[in-house]
């Protein structure tokens, strides 16, 4: 299958980019390996190399540097990667929409309360329009509350932190954790670090206190909230510093200034938990839709 025609500005000859070529390109870019890309998409290493070479020939440019052990993107390759991901996402969404237009069923979904808070209503509304016969029930809570519901069979799918559950899950997105302060707050390096945190079971709280202990920084908990919204409000009011995923930053909250010399924080994975062994068309459609929409985000 071929999609989207680009025109070469020198001779105005049409250039067609094949979906399989773009798929190979994205796999190599994401895995850093021609061999692993082939394993992921069911091709030999030489088969992947042929597709990448044809892609470069059609675009009249190199997309990978091959001077090192692992292929790295050229400037043009890095630019192409963004377009390729968007093309593949739209392609997959289109195929899904027209091959499963009458998908039916019910799906009970649990989402952590800081997962795309501003974009989520629009994404769910769009899903409802595309799949009107899928009855979607959505609950947003902290992961420590969602996982027990999932284990009791009250939810079919949960999107939560990667450390929320010991069972297998599929990583949906990774983003850095950041120290946050209120936009008008003023803290100093040599003082006891005031913290606004979630309950004791929350990993963000554990990460914050452990990282401060490692660098021998004194801290005290001045506010304990029961939701990300609570922490955002407390931080915005200047009660204390918090640790949040970068995606949970909002107006009135900023990353802590460098002069506070706070310790580095790890990346944080947001994971889909569901029983992959069960056949569940409505769930599979929702997961495919969600992944495609995330790939389309800037």
Provide a descriptive summary of the structure in words:
The chain is an alpha/beta fold and 298 residues long. It folds into three domains: 2-99, Winged helix-like DNA-binding domain superfamily/Winged helix DNA-binding domain (Arc Repressor Mutant, subunit A), CATH 1.10.10; 105-173 and 270-296, D-Maltodextrin-Binding Protein, domain 2, CATH 3.40.190; 175-266, D-Maltodextrin-Binding Protein, domain 2 (3-Layer(aba) Sandwich), CATH 3.40.190. It is built from nine helices and 13 strands. It has helices at 19-31, 34-41, 45-59, 75-99, 120-130, 143-151, 203-214, 228-236, 281-296; strands spanning 2-7, 14-18, 64-65, 72-73, 105-112, 134-141, 157-161, 170-182, 193-197, 219-224, 242-245, 253-255, 267-273. The strands form four sheets. Strands 5, 6, 7, 8, 11, 12 and 13 form a seven-stranded mixed β-sheet that branches. A two-stranded antiparallel sheet has the order 1-2. A two-stranded antiparallel sheet has the order 3-4. Strand 3 and strand 4 (72-73) form a beta hairpin. The longest helix has 25 residues, at 75-99. The protein is globular and about 60 Å long. The two termini are 26 Å apart. The model is unreliable at 1-10 (pLDDT under 50).
